[in-house]
Amino acid sequence: MNRERMLSQLAAHSGPFDIAIIGGGATGLGAAVDAASRGHSVVLVEQSDFAKGTSSRSTKLVHGGVRYLKQGNVSLVLEALRERGLLVRNAPHLVHSLAFVIPSYHWWEGPFYGIGLKMYDALAGQLGLEPSRWLTRAEIMDQLPTLEAEGLDGGIVYHDGQFDDARLAIHLARTAANHGAVLLNHTRCRGLMKENGHVIGIKAECVETGRQHEIRAKCVINATGVFVDDVRHMDDAKADRIVAPSQGVHLVLPREFLPGDSAIMIPKTDDGRVLFAVPWHGCVIIGTTDTPVDHATVEPRALPEETDFLLKHAARYLTRDPRPGDVLSIFAGLRPLVAMKNAESTAALSRDHTILVSASGLITITGGKWTTYRRMAEDVVDHAELIAGIGVRRCVTHDLMIHGSATVLDPQDPLAVYGSDAAEIRELARQAPEWAGKVHPRLDLTCAEVIFHVRHEMARTVGDVLARRSRSLLLNAQASMSAAPRVAALMASELGWDAETTAHQVERFRQLACGYILEG
After folding, report:
1. Would you state the pLDDT for residue 404?
2. What b/e sequence results for 388-418 when a residue is b if at least 16 CB atoms lie within 10 Å of its CB, and e otherwise?
3. How many domains is the chain partitioned into structurally?
4. Which of 58, 242, 276, 514 is 20–30 Å from 67 (CA)?
């Protein structure tokens, strides 16, 4: 997957594409995979990088949603559990089972949550993971030695999925490309093309060069997450806003705060959300908050009250109270919740996905979550086939293996998330031994991976590499900032940057990384 080749494919394409997609997050990439694998011609544009927004800032869980079961939304849970099972099967290099412990500090909590989780197991059916079971106090302390023991009665363990969100996005992009889709990151949609009041394509601009593109398409899908209303207003300036963004914040701590292979799940915090403490890539993620925000931004920042909330709740359940100085990174993401009238809080808004078709034929899809991306894609492409008049073809993603799929993996191998592509990275290191070393002593990222990101995964900026191709920025913001000059030098040799461009890339990343460092 190479950006220059993608631009060449765009230029060589004659006539309109069947489907044009705006947005390169989970929803847009999923739609590209679905449509291309059905045999349609597809083009996708993303104003920044693939998964730059919400899709790289999740809690890293592929789950049915225990809290939705409590709310009585059985259909949403049933769909999500089915999709969770398909993801585990179709992307085994990126999705795996993880044990979650719900500690019980009151006698009634065990039976209450235990019954619900048995229903959760049953709804998963043949695509279920391991069954939930009761744990004694001693068993919990054995699994979670740093859990607060005072008042602990016992608890329950159940299993859900865990994944690397941005890596899955990149592998979806490669899957779509393997099926002939044209995907362009760092390409901004500047407007919609219309003829007789009907949308017939998009006006796009390359962020790197300023080059303009008029891309004709029989159907346009707006899959821009929290920014869908901006695109809807390109179509109709009077269109009602349909998204109410909600901010979720996560803290990343050293692994000693939660050693072992199990996560902690607290079903209800002060703001009514679920709190997770999840082991991930050698660290621990604590999250998440649910804070309404007025405006969506590309780089949302944690509010002081959100940070205080997470530190306070983590201290309640961990024997060692985390301090601001312990935080390796802090990141925020915006959920594209579908607005409903008279909703009192974002916790009351719809987590289901919504598809709208405007009078001009623009299709908008928003809402949903990573777990159900495949089903969302199937639904929106079904709509697109009818709008575009391109014929109805069977969806094949139910059984489609994601690029890089490999089942024989060592989970401790830092290259495991690349699946079958790991062999190519190792070959790069063999051919050029100077690329075998790490870009920084406190990061797992090697020079060979950076070269691979540029050559085969369309990484165009230092942030693309350190935030999404690798997860360095989320795992250790200070170390990633220190690694930026080395990463920039490697990218410069591949992309032909001059000294001024290279220095600009380093400074741009430094400014970005400052927002991931918690001052305290």
Report:
1. 94
2. bebeeeebebeebebbbbbeebeeeebbbbb
3. 3
4. 242
What Rg, from alpha-carbon coordinates, does the chain have? 23
CA 195 to CA 219: how far, in whole Å? 13
Sign of the C-alpha dihedral, residues 156, 159, 163, 168? negative
Q: Which residue bears the tokens 């709208």?
A: 356
Helices (H) and strands (E) in the chain, counts: 16, 19
- The CB-side HSE value for 299 (13 A sphere, CA atoms) comes to 12
pLDDT at 341: 52
Question: What is the pLDDT, as a whole number, of residue 267?
Answer: 81
Over residues 384-412, the pLDDT tens digits come to: 999 999 999 999 999 999 999 976 667 77
Q: How far apart are CA 199 and CA 110, in angstroms?
A: 55
In DSSP terms, which residues pair with 189 in a beta bridge? 204
Best CA proximity match to 252, nearest among 306, 323, 161, 331? 331
Model's pTM, two decimal places?
0.94
Q: Report d(CA 517, CA 348) in Å as an integer.
A: 31
Helix segments in 38-132, DSSP class H: 66-70, 74-90, 109-124
* pLDDT higher than threshold 50 for residue 368: yes
Q: Same domain, yes or no, for 357 and 377?
A: yes
Range of the domain at 442: 416-514
pLDDT at 314 over 70: yes
Nearest alpha-carbon partner for 465 in 223, 206, 185: 185
Residue 195 CB neighbour total at 10 angstroms = 10
Q: What is the pLDDT of residue 342?
A: 43
Residue 480: give its domain's CATH number.
1.10.8.870
DSSP assignment, residue 348? G
186 close to 303: Cβ distance less than 8 angstroms: no
Question: Which among 257, 311, 327, 290 is positioned nearest to 478, based on CA atoms?
Answer: 327
Q: What does 311-324 look like in DSSP terms, one character per residue?
A: HHHHHHHBSSPP-G
Domain annotation covers residue 72: no
Q: Looking at 399, 428, 462, which one is the last position of a domain?
A: 399
In this structure, the chain runs to a length of 520
Q: Which residue type is seen at 355?
A: I
What pLDDT digit, counting tens, does each position of 337-360 carry? 888 554 443 344 445 789 999 999
CATH number at residue 295: 3.30.9.10
Nearest-angstrom CA–CA distance, 64 and 366:
18
Helix or strand run (H / E) with residue 448: helix 447-456
Within this chain, do residues 233 and 251 fall inside the same structural domain, yes or no? no
pLDDT tens by residue, 443-476: 999 999 999 999 999 999 999 999 999 999 999 9
Residues 53 and 74 sit within 8 Å (Cβ to Cβ): no
* Residue 404 maps to a domain: no
Give me the amino acid identity at 143. Answer: Q
